[in-house]
């Protein structure tokens, strides 16, 4: 009897295990956080690229089930009489999971439900386009966004308004640092971007000064998993090369991310001739003369950044972000005997404290220091002209002169409270200080300005179909005084239609250069003096928009009509030249004034249509009438008609994914009013691009993506003489290749 008890006990106490991987049937990629269970008795969730393990299972028959958001539920009867490995493929649901956006309201919404109209560019869109830089990617996807480049940076435009009125955020924080108002986006590598969110129209209620045309929020990839390493490279013609290396880790309460971003290009000429400024006074001279200047110059840049996050406890988390950026812009020796050097160092410290009912408080303290130097590789004699003197200096190889030193300090506190199921209240306060040092370019060597602001916003669910967002920011700028910027947005959903309406105020305080500038320069064949004005008023705007969107299955289209009216636009006004200035050779004096009113009115249309399961066709068209009402002329550098399109084909098999894209962009001509009041135009153009990528997920922890393509497929080049306003600086048909290797555990 004892022997029989031992045998029976051994038989009944025998237990087995069930292990395997849960993966996407289409892509063969592992799915994390899937819920795996046997008859609701033994449960687990997948981790480490879809791996799961169920242990201590007695012999018998069970129903194995797997469920996870976005996939069809899996259910199958299995019999266990031994431990086994069982992989489970899940079929994605027919609908696409809506991405989460935060920029429009400052709180999280699914893109289809956000009350404020928001455009989103996903990491898949970015990978498919495989652009040379962030500006090219954004303007290649959204027709309402355009950009032009210069040695100072990129002038990004939204719906007819340029860099002065577009606020660029990096992970929700103001991206400061640049020259002449240009945001320096070389610090960002497109391979490190999770998604880009675009909110059009005045957004000063949430973001304060500068957000008159809209906001572009670039969100980088976060820490995922215990350990990951990524290397991404892109190589194109004319020495165009970019490299991103990143490393992330998560251990216990501490997580971190380290990135190294490198970019370079060799530069090129579109035409070796330029207009002869002396021809106007002497027609016996040649109309065109040779030049060594290039519209695109050689450059090298790199960024090192470090992010840490520490969870103090279940309620409090702290984070710190550090970055160091350097860029050198090289000019041809025979054109200009000095180069430009840029350096940005930034530190950010913040945290979040979670309260009940998903309420939270957050804070951030950011310090950003952007420096702009002239760098001398050769011996050079330089002259600086101030309001009281002419200063001459000799520089030797390796010397640098600091043209400007800008420090931005921003302190923010924000709270979000879910009052009830129908009301979410946000409030915040911000203190921003800006400090500028620019010897020989300002009326005084050092100047500063401060802005204090307080805002409140209420997100209301009035009914199942109607949402309302109302907000107000009150701010004080120490040079222009008090201002208030209200905003009201409504969304009405009816069946397959979504309608949105927005009214908002925009605000832009004058820059320190606009207030205190003093600079002499020889432009357009005339020696001019440029002056700031300490009596400038803030620029303000009224923005109205109404949009409708239709979505059925995978077909989606939308139309947006808008008006943006700007008051007290800052521009230069010609004033009499003083006797002392005239004796020094000044031929014309221009001073900043609030002299212009402007408006933009236009229509944006977009669509996305699946031709069949593997082929997707999408595009957008924008019309904008951007006008300087004071002078009754078009605003400088704006294309009235813009369009983008993309035909994307995707095939999946054996843990591989092949994607081929044919995409293009069209821009109509741009108008320019020169400093000598001559009118000129940049030509209309269209550029086509063929790109492809092969993703391989054959190995458990490794993912590889190979890209290749042709930029400017039909070889269009705007090769007018140097100094012209170019429609595009694209050098012609070029090839590019890329490689991305990702390891995660």
UniProtKB/TrEMBL annotation:
Similarity comment: family membership: Belongs to the TonB-dependent receptor family.
A GO term for molecular function: carbohydrate binding
Domain TonB-dependent receptor plug: 112-215
InterPro entries, alphabetized: Beta-barrel_TonB, Beta-barrel_TonB_sf, Carb-bd-like_fold, Plug_dom, Plug_dom_sf, TonB-dep_rcpt-like
Superkingdom of source: Bacteria
Lineage: Bacteria, Pseudomonadati, Bacteroidota, Bacteroidia, Marinilabiliales
Name of this protein: Outer membrane receptor for ferrienterochelin and colicins
Family annotation (SUPFAM superfamilies): Porins (SSF56935), Starch-binding domain-like (SSF49452)
Keywords, alphabetical: Cell outer membrane, Membrane, Receptor, Signal, TonB box, Transmembrane, Transmembrane beta strand, Transport
Keyword Thylakoid recorded: no
Organism listed in the record: Marinifilum flexuosum
């Amino acid at each position: 009897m004892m022997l029989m008890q031992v045998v029976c006990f051994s038989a009944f106490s025998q237990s087995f295990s069930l292990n395997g991987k849960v993966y996407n049937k289409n892509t063969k990629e592992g799915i994390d956080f899937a819920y795996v269970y046997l008859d609701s008795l033994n449960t687990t969730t997948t981790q480490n690229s879809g791996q799961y393990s169920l242990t201590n299972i007695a012999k018998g028959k069970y129903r194995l089930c797997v469920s996870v958001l976005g996939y069809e539920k899996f259910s199958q009867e299995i019999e266990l009489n031994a431990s086994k490995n069982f992989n489970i493929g899940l079929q994605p649901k027919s609908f696409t999971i809506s991405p989460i956006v935060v920029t429009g309201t400052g709180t999280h919404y699914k893109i289809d439900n956000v009350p404020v109209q928001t455009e989103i560019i996903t990491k898949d869109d970015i990978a498919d386009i495989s652009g040379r830089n962030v500006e090219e990617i954004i303007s290649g996807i959204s027709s309402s966004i355009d950009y032009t480049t210069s040695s100072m940076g990129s002038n990004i435009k939204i719906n007819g308004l340029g860099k002065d009125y577009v606020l660029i955020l990096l992970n929700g924080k103001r991206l400061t640092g640049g020259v002449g108002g240009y945001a320096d986006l070389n610090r960002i590598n497109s391979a490190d971007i999770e998604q880009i969110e675009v909110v059009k129209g005045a957004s000063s209620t949430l973001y304060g000064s500068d957000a008159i045309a809209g906001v572009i929020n670039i969100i980088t990839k976060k820490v995922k998993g215990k350990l990951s390493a990524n290397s991404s490279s892109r190589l194109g013609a004319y020495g165009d090369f970019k490299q991103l290396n990143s490393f992330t880790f998560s251990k216990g309460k501490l997580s971190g991310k380290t990135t190294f971003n490198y970019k370079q290009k060799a530069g090129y000429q579109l035409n070796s001739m330029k207009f002869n400024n002396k021809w106007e006074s002497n027609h016996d001279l040649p109309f065109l003369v040779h030049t060594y200047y290039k519209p695109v110059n050689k450059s090298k840049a790199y960024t090192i950044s470090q992010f840490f996050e520490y969870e103090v406890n279940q309620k409090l988390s702290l984070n710190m972000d550090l970055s160091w950026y350097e860029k050198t812009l090289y000019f041809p020796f025979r054109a200009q005997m000095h180069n430009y050097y840029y350096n940005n160092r930034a530190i950010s410290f913040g945290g979040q404290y979670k309260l009940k009912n998903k309420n939270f408080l957050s804070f951030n303290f950011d310090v950003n220091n952007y420096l702009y130097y002239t760098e001398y590789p050769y011996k050079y004699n330089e002259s600086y002209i101030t309001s009281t003197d002419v200063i001459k200096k000799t520089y030797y190889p390796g010397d640098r002169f600091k043209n400007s030193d800008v420090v931005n300090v921003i302190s923010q506190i924000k709270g979000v409270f879910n009052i009830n199921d129908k009301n979410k209240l946000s409030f915040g306060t911000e203190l921003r200080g800006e400090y500028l040092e620019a010897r020989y370019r300002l009326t005084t060597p050092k100047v500063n300005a401060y802005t204090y602001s307080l805002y409140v916003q209420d997100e209301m669910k009035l009914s199942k179909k109607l949402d309302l967002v109302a907000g107000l920011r009150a701010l004080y700028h120490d040079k222009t005084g008090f201002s208030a910027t209200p905003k009201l947005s409504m969304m009405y959903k009816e069946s397959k239609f979504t309608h949105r309406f927005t009214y908002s105020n925009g605000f832009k305080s004058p820059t320190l250069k606009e207030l205190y500038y003093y600079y002499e320069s020889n432009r357009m064949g005339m020696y001019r003096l440029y002056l700031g004005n300490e009596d400038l008023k803030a620029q303000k705007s009224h923005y109205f928009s109404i949009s409708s969107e239709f979505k059925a299955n995978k077909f989606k289209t939308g139309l947006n009509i808008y008006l943006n009216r700007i008051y007290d636009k800052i521009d230069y006004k010609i004033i009499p030249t003083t006797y002392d200035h005239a004796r020094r050779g000044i031929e014309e004096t221009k001073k900043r004034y609030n002299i212009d009113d402007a408006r933009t009115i236009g229509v944006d249309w977009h669509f996305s249509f699946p031709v069949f399961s593997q082929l997707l066709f999408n595009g957008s068209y924008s019309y904008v009438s951007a006008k300087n009402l004071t002078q009754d002329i078009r605003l400088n550098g704006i294309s009235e008609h813009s369009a983008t399109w993309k035909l994307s084909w995707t095939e999946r098999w054996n843990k591989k994914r092949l994607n081929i894209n044919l995409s293009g962009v069209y821009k109509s001509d741009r108008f320019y009013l020169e400093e000598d009041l001559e009118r000129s135009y940049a030509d209309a153009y269209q550029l086509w691009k063929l790109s492809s990528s092969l993703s391989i997920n054959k190995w458990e922890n490794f993912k590889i993506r190979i890209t290749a393509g042709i930029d400017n497929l039909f070889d269009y080049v705007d090769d007018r003489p140097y100094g012209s306003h170019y429609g595009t600086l694209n050098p012609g048909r070029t090839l590019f290749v890329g490689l991305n290797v990702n390891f995660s555990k």
